[in-house]
Structures are given as structure tokens and as C-alpha cells.
Write a structure and sequence with these properties.
heterodimer, A: alpha/beta, Rossmann fold, six-stranded parallel β-sheet, B: mainly alpha
Chain lengths: 274, 218
Amino acid sequence: MNIIERFEKVDRRIIFLLVLLAVIIPLLFPIGFEIKASEPVQKFYDAIEALIPGSMVLVSCEYDPSTMPEVYPMNQSLARHCFAKDLKIIGMGLWPQGIPLNQASMEQAAEEYQKEYGVDYVNLGYKAGGIVVISSAAENIPNTFPLDYAGRPIEEFEIMDGVRNFDNIDLIISLSAGDPGVREWIMIAQGRYGKKVAGGVTAVSAPAFYPYLHSGQLQGLIGGMKGAAEYETILQTSGTASRGMDAQSIAHGLIIFFILFANFFYLIGKRRKK
Amino acid sequence: MIETLGIWIAALLTLCILSFLYKDNPFYRFAEHLFVGLSAAYWVVYSYYNILWPNLIQPLFGQGQLLLIIPLILGIMMIMKLFPKVGWMSRWPLAFIVGSYSGYHLITYLQSNAVEQVRATLVPFIQIESWKNLFTNPGVMTFLNAIAIPVVIVGVITGVIYFFFSKEHKGVFGGLAKIGVWFLMIAFGASFGYTVMARISLLIGRMYFLLHNWLHLI
């Protein structure tokens, strides 16, 4: 067996091991590659910066623990950004498992910025129905969410005073890992009610949302862990996304090398067989 | 103490799942079955307390909202799918869902995903400001900004031509369709690149958990 045949029949577990090392080593010994904010992330940041203190931001979480490494850092940074600007957050979700994750992000940021539940932020919880929930909340939030995530009536909370429908919301942000998610918010909140909508999505779904950004239907877009790291960079904070970017870059480099290497030996092998 | 125990369980289950990369084994099988069973139980309990109870049972039997008898009956008809003799009954609520959802969705979907996207391509082919910017500050970014709109317009037109099957793809038409294919291939490549990034991100997330939360090495 010559070297080309050996490479053609390489055990896939060797590749798994190399990818694992490419991820673990930069996590243990950070390199510190530079992270620059891309235009979609900068737009996301600018959309929040454009709000005046006291503005209402509706943050809807449509993700679950399986996509936490990508979306949770966005959620944490977003809560910090809003509280740093004295914005009020109304949390909700079209996925049930997004609710505790959003709550954890808001609680953590609230502790850092001395914000109070019910005054500066509230979590309305989950409601089944996807697109119908968005339409219903657009017309009447208290009717759609009479209780918060812990079952307390929302009229008890100061933050909900005067909040009737989407007219009282200044910016809507959906952090999503699938459907229902950003697309449904664009269709109803932006398309039907003309509200400003921004999104944070997993890397898998990010390419599908660039047309919405180009058309102006989305105010800004954070895509995957890389987008989350860029957002952390703009906010000058170091979160889990920034810490993972060295590993991401090395692993990508390794995969590019594998693709070129495999194609090179494939072509040589093909030529020899001829 | 409970948090530490949770971290240990999560770490060991992560290792059980990752062990599949070496080869199929009983540890992987155990973690897989545990996940399937727990997920099913979680969703049953969650659906009851967060969907059925607050939206149907409590308002119907607690507050006497009799109109909710209709969705209750439709829900029961849906469960009939489990019994072959009366399985046909499940088609009625399904038809109701498909019909109402389509009607509700259709206009909004077309508006957001077709009309708005077409409108976004109805822009001048040459953006004079971008080209002026290119000549005053020549560089990669200014060049990309200058050609962005022409690339979008050419991509949309040639992409649509590729999917136009009523005319044979020959001559000029065939050439344009080929350009459309190139645009599609680049889009698929970008999409695949993002997918790789997503999967690596998930691996990083798990490794970060093991090294940070479990082993406290970082």
C-alpha cells in the first residue's frame, strides 16, 4: 500500500482526534486572534444604541440548550447592553426551553447593573402557538400573557404599566435556533405592524437571514458564535463566545487543510489509476 | 452540592455520547436511551402544565368558557389516530389546522418573503456614491461595496432563469442559467461553511463545559 492509498483509507477516528485537539488546545492556551465586528453585528448594536433610556425592548427566546454555545452568549450580552443603556426588557419565548435561559441571562445582568425584576425587566414566559402568539401579543400583550413565567399576574409589575400592545414596544429582538423564530417575527411584527425587528440566530440558519437584512426588514443580525463574539467585542466584554473563537479559527483552518489535502490526494490517485 | 452532582452527571453523559466517535458501545446506548426517555417525559409534563392546563382545562372547567369544548372535541378526534378503526376522525382536526394556518400564513408570507425581497432588488444597478467612494479610497472593501448591488441583481436574475424550465437551457439563455448555477453553488458553499461553523461551535461549547465547569482547567 503506497502513501496515497494509505491517505485514502485513513481511519476517520484520526480526523476526529485532530479536530478535538484543534478545539481543546486553543481553549487551554488562548492565542488571542483579533475579532472585528462585521456590518450585520454593528447594525444590531446600533439599533440598541439608537434607543433612548427607558425604551422597551421585547426579547423573545426561541432556542434551547442544544444551541446554547451559540445563542446564550448573545442573550447574555444583549441583557448587559440593554441594562447598561437603562433600557427595559420584556422577555418572552415561542420555545419553552428558551424561557429559563433568558431568565438566567437577565438575572445575571440585573445583578451586575443593580436592576430589579418587575421594574426594569420581566419574563412573560412561554405561550404555545408560534405565529398566532405574535399576532395576539401585537394586539394585546396582557391578554396574551396574563401571568409571568412564574405564574404571577403581570399587572403586579411596574414595568407593565401602560404596556398594552406593540405600540408600546420600541424594538423587538428574537434570538432563535429555528421555527418559530426570527422569520415569524419579521412576518408579523415587521411586515404587518411595522415594528423594528433585530435577530440573533445560529450559524446554520444565518445565511437565510441575510436577504432580510439587505431588504431592511431586519435592523441587525448576529450569526452564530462568531457573531456573538463580535458583539462581545463591541461591548468590550469577554464572554464564552470570545473565548471560543481561537478554537473556532484553528478548527476551521484544520478543516480547510483536510479538504485541500483530501482533494489533492484524490486527484493524484485518480490520475495514477488512469 | 446538588450543582456539583449535576455537573458530574452532565460531564459523564457528555463523555458517554462522545464515546460513539470511537465506536458504538453500551455507554453511548445508555446515554442515548436516557435522553430519549427523559425528553419524552419532559414534553408530556411540560405540555400538560403549560399548554393543556392554562389554555384548555382551567378555562373550560374552572371558568366555564364553554366555547373551548370545540377545541377539546377536535383534540380528542386527533388522538383517534391511535385507534385504526376510527383513525379517519383525526383527518378533520388536521384539515382544520392546515386550512386555517395556510389562510393565516399565506398573505403575510408572500409579503415578507416575496414582495419585500423583490422590492429590495429594485434599486439602481450602479450606485454612484459607492463608485465615487471606490475611486477616492481604492481598497478591497470599497470595491466590494461598489459591486454589491450589481452582484445581487445579476444573481437574482440568473438564479431565476436557472429555475425557468419552460424554455430549453441553450444559447444565451443557457449561458445565463449556468451563471445562475454558479451563484447557487457559491450560496450552497457559504451555507455549508456556516453549518461547519455551527457544529464546531457546539463542540467548543461542550469542551468548554468539560474544561471549565467540570475540570476547572480554564
